[in-house]
Specification:
The protein is mainly β. The chain is built from 2 helices and 9 strands; from the N terminus they run H-E-E-E-E-E-E-E-E-E-H. Strands 1, 2, 3, 4, 5, 6, 7, 8 and 9 form a 9-stranded mixed beta sheet that branches.
Length: 191
């Protein structure tokens, strides 16, 4: 009888301990920030992941900050901030964001609907033109912590198409995921 009591107690503790984990995706990193595109500014949060891919010129380090759930972004509709630079995972430090990713981190703000139908696509894609990405902690468990702030310029894909300025800032704790996770989204991230 005592053994049954302890077994039931252990099961109830395990059930309470895992109640906050609604899925495997909740184990990914997180981010929060503010994104402005033209006159529209919004406070956002979501999942943060990073990887190293083999690009056409060697390894490339990529951080993806996905508004909402990582798998909410796919080939048809996406909402993310992406950072990339040539080379392996960098160390702790402050890095420039520039529109020439061979000299600094490249940054992209993308929020597009109906992306699989180019003539019907609505949204914005902007590239970072100046700012900073700070990596403040890298641990042995596959997490990178940091912050970002950058200005961006791009195109609003909504009739009439027009140039648009924007900016983004925020903090993140990104978890390492293999390149296949990015590829499964079906986004044309160039990886």
């Amino acid at each position: 009888m005592l053994r049954l009591f302890f077994s039931l107690s252990l099961l109830s503790v395990l059930a309470l301990g895992t109640a906050g984990c609604d899925s495997e995706e909740s184990l990914l990193g997180e981010f929060e920030g503010r994104i402005a595109v033209g006159p529209e500014a919004r406070v956002v949060d979501g999942e943060a992941v990073y990887t190293v891919v083999n690009g056409p010129y060697g390894p490339e380090f990529v951080i993806g900050l996905f508004v909402g759930d990582l798998y909410d972004s796919d080939f048809d509709e996406y909402d993310y901030v992406l950072f990339r630079r040539p080379g392996d995972r960098p160390g702790v430090g402050a890095y420039a964001i520039d529109d020439d990713p061979t000299r600094a981190f490249g940054a992209t703000i993308a929020r597009v609907e109906e992306a699989d139908e180019p003539l019907d696509a609505v949204g914005a894609i902007l590239n970072g033109v100046g700012g900073t990405l700070a990596l403040t902690r890298i641990d042995g468990y596959g997490f990178i912590t940091g912050s970002f702030q950058f200005d961006a310029r791009g195109v609003m894909a909504a009739p009439p198409n027009r140039s648009v300025d924007g900016n983004a800032r925020g903090t993140f704790e990104a978890r390492y995921e293999p390149p296949s996770v990015f590829r499964r989204l079906g986004l044309d991230l160039g990886i």
